[in-house]
Specification:
By secondary structure, this protein is an alpha+beta fold. The protein contains 14 helices and ten strands. The strands form two sheets. Strands 1-2-3-4-5-6-7-8 form an eight-stranded antiparallel beta barrel. Strands 9-10 form a two-stranded antiparallel sheet. A hairpin with a 2-residue loop joins strand 9 and strand 10. The termini are far apart.
């Protein structure tokens, strides 16, 4: 008896999974029918498929600056046309506008998997821009290079590649201070900042300058302008040009400037204008501020603010929204982007992971916030439905005493008597293979019949599109 009880409990535990599998199969069959119908409509002359209408509406919302709404339209269209490189490319751009570089990168890669020719050159730009936004500079440069190999004069790809190279060089420049000796033996110490400032120290005295990089040529160069407060009527000091290169695995920085009053940019690293600097530990730490606050605490505050900013469901905008509706959408999008910038990528990614699996949260408050965030992400098509990520169980319904059996002609009508008249409908279970087969056959037959009826309604008896 104990063994039978355990088996019964085990079977009860597995029942929800079987039901989830059954419901998923039914949903997949319905989605397959919708896709066939969408393809059928798109193939008819003079008709517009649902996916094409959704894409057009998404493009319209994008032009208004309603990027969240555009994302929803593109996502709905992708459900119907999952092999459209254009839809993934468009959604990647909408994600970039919302500072969702991770999602934009995934869509750009998917778009290129479907179509990687020059006809899909925009996807190369989306991919390289997403990598640049994620501070993956070398990968961004490589992705831009792949696109430029197909379309060498593409201005967007050239711009992203230049920015990626500049960011990569700046990252190497700010890795430490650089110490070298001038031609006369005087020691010079140089430090760079990400904000484009350069500090040069000689004999304990420092001069602050700005620098601008030019990374497209060979050798690479920079223009340095001193921040010098001259007297009234005095002209500012002229800018100094340098060529530069990294040597010895970025442990050396070679800087070479013109000598003898020449303003021409040197072409070789030689002469008295060459100074070889060695990298040393920075005198002042330049690392970005790292909060001592635990990640979970920062994430908790981030989710609180994000839930407060995002309505539970996005507004249903008309085809042509009013100025006020557009303004509200743009304002929400801006506030969300500001939150992401203020808290950083690490916190945002942690919040997304919690929204995917709220039960993994560290405490009850965090789990509740993760559930709320999850609902908002699902409503905006930012997360895929996961049957394993269950919503919180509803409050138990109070038990109501059963009603007495009805009386007909002076006799009680019992459940057994009803079942004798109305046969029970079989429920799906692990042993109901015949039932499954019957259901699938009926669905297939009904689906084909419905397609035929819809075609008849659309095309009419004369075979023309109405």
């Amino acid at each position: 008896m104990a063994q039978d009880k355990k088996e019964d409990e085990h079977e009860q535990d597995e029942e929800p999974e079987e039901e989830d599998s059954y419901e998923k199969e039914r949903k997949d069959q319905y989605l397959d029918f919708r896709r066939k119908m969408d393809e059928f409509k798109g193939a008819q002359e003079g008709m517009v498929s649902e996916s094409e209408s959704l894409k057009s509406q998404g493009n319209a919302y994008f032009s208004f600056g309603c990027y969240s709404q555009a994302t929803i339209m593109y996502s709905d269209a992708i459900e119907l046309q999952p092999h459209s490189h254009v839809l993934y490319c468009n959604r990647a751009m909408a994600y970039l506008k919302q500072e969702m570089a991770d999602l934009a990168l995934a869509d750009a890669i998917k778009s290129l998997e479907i179509e990687s020719s020059v006809d899909n050159i925009k996807a190369y730009w989306r991919k390289s821009q997403a990598l640049l936004d994620l501070d993956r500079y070398e990968e961004a440069e490589a992705a831009a290079g792949e696109g430029l190999a197909l379309h060498g004069r593409n201005p967007h790809l050239n711009k992203v590649r230049r920015k990626a190279r500049e960011a990569s060089v700046t990252q190497r420049l700010v890795a430490g201070d650089w110490v070298g000796k001038l031609d006369n033996g005087i020691e010079q110490r140089i430090s760079f900042s990400r904000e484009g400032e350069m500090s040069m120290t000689v004999f304990g005295h420092s001069l602050t300058s700005t620098f601008e990089l030019s990374v497209e040529g060979n050798p690479r160069s920079m223009v340095v302008r001193m921040k010098y407060e001259a007297g009234p009527g005095s002209p500012p000091p002229p800018p100094m040009v340098y060529i530069f290169d990294f040597q010895d695995d970025d442990k050396e920085l070679w800087l070479c400037h013109p000598t003898d009053g020449s303003k021409d940019l040197p072409t070789k690293f030689e002469g008295s204008g060459l100074v070889k600097h060695r990298r040393v530990e920075a005198a002042k730490p330049k690392a970005e501020e790292v909060s001592d606050e635990p990640l979970d605490e920062r994430c908790l505050r981030y989710m609180r603010e994000m839930v407060a900013v995002l309505p539970l469901n996005p507004p249903q905008l008309p085809e042509k929204p009013s100025d006020e509706q557009i303004r509200d959408e743009v304002e929400i999008c801006g506030r969300v982007s500001t939150l992401k910038r203020n808290y950083g990528l690490e916190v945002h990614r942690h919040a997304v992971e919690l929204a995917k699996a709220p039960s993994s949260a560290a405490n009850v408050e965090m789990e509740e916030l993760a559930q709320k965030l999850r609902r908002r992400f699902l409503a905006r098509k930012l997360l895929a439905e996961d049957p394993k990520a269950k919503a919180p169980k509803p409050d138990p319904v109070p038990q109501v005493a059963p009603s007495p059996p009805p009386v007909v002609d002076g006799a009680e009508v019992t459940t057994a008597k009803v079942e004798a008249v109305v046969p029970a409908v079989p429920k799906p279970s692990a042993n109901s293979a015949e039932f499954e087969k019957l259901v699938h056959t009926r669905i297939d037959n009904r689906g084909q019949d419905m397609l035929s009826r819809l075609a008849s309604c659309i095309c009419g008896g004369c075979g023309k599109v109405s």
